[in-house]
Amino acid sequence: MPEINFHKYQGTGNDFIMIDDRMNGFDLSRIDLISRWCDRKFGIGADGVILIRDHPDYDFEMVYFNPDGTQSLCGNGSRCAVRFAESLGIVSASCKFMAVDGLHEGQIQGEQIRIKMHNVDTLLKTEEDYFVDTGSPHYVTLVKELANVDVVKEGRTIRNNPRFLPGGTNVNFVQPKNGQVLVRTYERGVEDETLSCGTGVTAVALVMAAQGFESPVNISAAGGDLQVSFIKTPDKGYTEVYLSGPAEKVFEGIIQY
């Protein structure tokens, strides 16, 4: 049976299987393999699979799969992809790469990887909650005691609410506390709570900006700390949005393909 080399990376506890696929050897229709590899009991275990491919105009293309085989933008995955591309000798201090939602820029600053996200034109507010698209859709709700929230139960209910059909939404529970912003996230595609979510943290930071926080906003997720900087526009939009945080290699191996 054929074998494939993989590398495991993590960014604030959000972990990914990274594959150097510059030869386009991976069959993108093999969703069964994506799900199996991400399984923490029967596979490698990860929150997603990322392929690094050549791109005719930019440094590389990032093809990201959720464990259920769907594709979306992944902020922490993007940061890990830049770190992986650096290890492959594709990029150095800065880069441009293509993702499912378009072009992104990456910067390598020592242990920190900084990713430029897309502009956000508006935050949709429903009563006390918000909906923000930061490349992936995110529902943001403020809570009083984050530690007491049943993230999986409540997150799954909101994720599957008919108003978010057909794709559903990610769900972020947020507690501002003593100048910090604490967050826990239920991720669609993973269908569980993850230790960190880059696009979610970005959405939370912009919501906090609407609550009066200044750039940059420091966010504490279960897996570690991230920072989001931005420029607020006169029409209540956000430009120059950057997500920053650590990304590192955990191990590498070979698995049957």
Give an overview of the whole structure.
By secondary structure, the chain is α+β, with helices and mostly antiparallel strands. It folds into 2 domains: 3-116, Roll (Diaminopimelate Epimerase, Chain A, domain 1); 124-246, Diaminopimelate Epimerase, Chain A, domain 1 (Roll), CATH 3.10.310. Helix content is 17%, strand content 43%. It is built from 4 helices and 17 strands. It has a 17-stranded mixed beta sheet that branches. A hairpin with a 4-residue loop joins strand 12 and strand 13. The longest helix is centred in the first third of the chain and has 13 residues, at 75-87. It is globular. It starts with a strand and ends with a strand.
Which key phrases capture this entry?
single chain, 257 residues, alpha+beta, Diaminopimelate Epimerase, Chain A, domain 1, 2 domains, 17-stranded mixed sheet, 4 helices, 17 strands, globular
- The whole-angstrom Rg is 18 Å
Work out the number of β strands. 17
Instruction: Please outline the major beta sheet.
Output: 17 strands, mixed
Distance between the amino and carboxyl termini: 7 Å
- What is the assigned CATH homologous superfamily of the largest domain? Diaminopimelate Epimerase, Chain A, domain 1
Give me the strand/helix succession.
EEHEEHEEEEEEHEEEHEEEE
For the record, the count of structural domains works out to 2
Count of DSSP helices? 4
Mean pLDDT: 96
* CATH-derived architecture of the largest domain: Roll
Stretches where pLDDT is under 50 for at least 5 consecutive residues are none
- Determine the fraction of residues in helical runs and give it as a percent range: 10-25%
